[in-house]
Design goal:
By secondary structure, the chain is an alpha/beta fold. Helix content is about 30%, strand content about 15%. It is built from 13 helices and 13 strands. The strands form 3 sheets. The protein has an 8-stranded parallel sheet. The chain has a 3-stranded antiparallel sheet with strand order 9-13-12, with no helix packed on it. Strands 1-2 form a two-stranded antiparallel ribbon. It binds flavin mononucleotide (FMN).
């Protein structure tokens, strides 16, 4: 009976353990978590979501304060179009986050960064160019393009000296999205080095509509696999979304996948950035406590725990400090929803906004508890302690469980 460790992922000249920990935005997939995956010979993702904020927390820098101070005069203004990121500072924050992570890397694995196109930051092209270039300057091993079609992303950085050396991959949820991207990247003679196929059971934003339940990861992977074979394209395929046991992973590897990307099982590890109290919420969750909703201002459906404090909260938009989801004209769907409620209830001190959420603020404060579909199985991966809480896991334990488990068994942590 095969185990994940019987397989290897080939990326260029490198041979890797075929497990990738997925990017989990705003420092849920911390540097510490990615470093464990790399130390054990796999690939660990950090995320480039809200890096100035993450850097402030990690290195006591003052990027957010500086921006907030600059735009303080605009806080009560409904029009946020003046709010812009200082591109020099953005590059500094990204280089710091990436550079320090890379300096700490040990072992044969790699560290990649997950870069979301939907983080439009008031100036989509300029900020994306800076984030991608600064990550390469910081020494990142690879960049995973996510949350968007990324049709113009590679062209933004084609002149960077590391353009052909850094590994590039894209996350897609359909063959159609992949073919659009491949057409663009063929024009630059820079095909992706790997393709992550994310199915409907993943955490974070979904690349499906609210009809996500009708889709199935295996079917999409098979379709993309057939397409690549037919086109003679030898690009490693990496399924993600609901791969909960080593055996789930082996089934994909035996069917031709090159590796798997996993995330949910790591949300309850010590190295994960969520506060311990929130990790207990993930452990306790039952299937009916998880929903896919449309409150993200990005417009993509997002899966989360129903008791996330972000749902229904009516805080004032915090774009002067954050503003990561402002589009090129300074708009965000939350601002519109908030202003609508404010106009309806002008005398109320605390308003509630049900249809959208201030995702920047709530992700920053770990109040939007986004999670994978199988979060309700996390309780079976640990031990219940006498006080009713669950024992946190080590990332190494979870990683190795993926590598060595058979027959869908899940190893419990040592007591
Ligand atoms: C808490 C959480 C946050 C996530 N945040 C992001 C993100 O910021 N960007 C992204 O591309 N994917 C994100 N994902 C998706 C994961 O990277 C991964 O592809 C997916 O969750 C894998 O499925 P699994 O969680 O069932 O293992 C997130 C997943 C989780 C659980």
């Amino acid at each position: 009976m095969k185990r994940v460790d019987d397989f290897r992922l080939r990326l260029g000249k490198k041979e890797l353990v075929p497990v990738m920990t997925g990017g989990m935005g705003v420092d849920i997939s911390t540097a510490e978590l990615s470093l464990v995956a790399a130390r054990l010979g796999g690939i660990g993702h950090i995320s480039d979501a809200m890096v100035p904020t993450v850097s402030d927390r990690r290195f006591k820098t003052g990027f957010v304060k500086e921006k907030q101070k600059k735009y303080k005069y605009n806080v009560a203004n409904r029009d946020k179009s003046v709010v812009q990121f200082d591109l020099v500072r953005l590059a500094e924050a990204t280089k710091l986050h990436v550079g320090r992570t890379m300096e700490a890397k040990k072992g044969d694995g790699l560290i990649f960064i997950n870069t979301m196109e939907k983080l439009t930051m008031g100036s989509p092209r300029d900020t994306l160019r800076v984030r991608l270039s600064a990550a390469m300057d910081g020494g990142i091993d690879g960049i995973t393009l996510s949350a968007g079609l990324h049709l113009g992303s590679l062209a933004l950085i084609e002149d960077h000296p590391r353009f052909r050396d850094v590994k590039f991959g894209i996350i897609v949820s359909s063959l159609r999205a992949l073919t659009l991207f491949l057409r663009k990247s063929a024009r630059l003679n820079r095909l992706p080095d790997y393709i992550i196929v994310e199915g409907p059971l993943a955490g974070g934003h979904l690349g499906f509509g609210m009809d996500w339940v009708q889709y199935d990861l295996k079917t999409i992977v098979d379709e993309i696999h057939r397409y690549l074979t037919q086109e003679n394209l030898n690009i490693p395929l990496i399924p993600a979304g609901g791969i909960f046991t080593g055996t789930d992973a082996v089934e994909f590897l035996e069917a031709g996948a090159a590796a798997v990307q996993v995330a949910t099982r790591f949300t309850v590890t010590r190295e994960c950035g969520l506060p311990d109290k929130v990790k207990q919420e993930y452990f306790r969750a039952n299937e009916e406590d998880i929903e896919v909703n449309l409150i993200s201002p990005t417009g993509y459906p997002m899966r989360m725990l129903k008791n996330s404090p972000a749902i229904g909260a009516g805080i004032r938009p915090n774009c002067e400090a954050y503003g990561y989801l402002l589009d090129g004209t300074g708009n965000c769907a939350y601002i519109e929803a908030y202003n609508r409620e404010l106009d309806k209830h002008p005398d109320e001190e605390n308003i509630s906004v049900m249809d959208k959420t201030c995702l920047c603020t709530h992700m920053r404060n770990f109040d939007c508890w986004t999670c994978g579909h199988y979060t309700y199985r996390l309780k079976d991966t640990s031990r219940r302690l006498p006080d009713g809480s669950y024992q946190l896991l080590n990332a190494e334990h979870v990683f190795k469980d993926y590598l060595y488990s058979t027959e869908h068994k899940i190893a419990l942590p040592a007591e």
